[in-house]
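To: structure desk
From: M.T.
Subject: fold request, one chain
Message: Could you run this one when you get a chance? Sequence is below, nothing fancy, just the single chain.
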Amino acid sequence: MADGKSSAKDKILAAADHLAREVGPGHISLDAVAQRAGVSKGGLLYHFPTKAKLLEALVEYHLKTFDEGMKEREALKGDVPNNVVSAYVDLFMREHERKQPPPSGLMAALAENPNLLDPVRRFNRIFLDRIKNNAVDPTLATIIFLAIEGIRSMELFNIKALGEEEFEAVLSRLKELAKPA
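Reply: Done. C-alpha cells follow.
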C-alpha cells in the first residue's frame, strides 16, 4: 500500500492473524500483537484504540483477504459459467494443502463480540448470490458452497470427521461438479 499508515495497519493485522493461529484466540493481547508486528503499543493503539477495534478489523481483514484470493482465481478461469464456484473449490483446496490452521482470529473476534458475525453474514450472502448467479445449476453450486463451509467449520472447531483419503475424495468430486462450463 502507498501510505505508511495502511502498511502499518496491514502489518498489525497480519501479526494478529498469525498470533491467533499460533497461540489460539484466547491468548491474543495487544502487547503480543504489537511485539509480533514490530510496532510500539502506542503505534498499535493509534490504529486500533481497543482490542475490540482490532478484532473488528481482523474480521474485515479475513473477508478482504478471502475476496482478493477469490477474484484472482476467478480471473484465471475466465468469465464463464461456474467460474466462481470452481474458484471457491480451488481456493479451499489451496488453503488445505498449505496445512495452515484455520483463521482462529475470527473465532477470537466472535467470542469477544458476537455482533461481528454481521459482516460475515452479509459477506456470505453476497458471495453465495455471486456463486449462484454464475452457476449453470444454482442448487448444485449452493450444495458445493455448503459442503465447503461445513468442512471449514469442522476444521475451525478442530473436528476431524474425515480422514485425509476421504477428504481428498470429497474435494475431488466437488472440483469435478464445479468445473467451469
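Reply (cont.): The radius of gyration is 18 Å. Let me know if you need anything else for the meeting.
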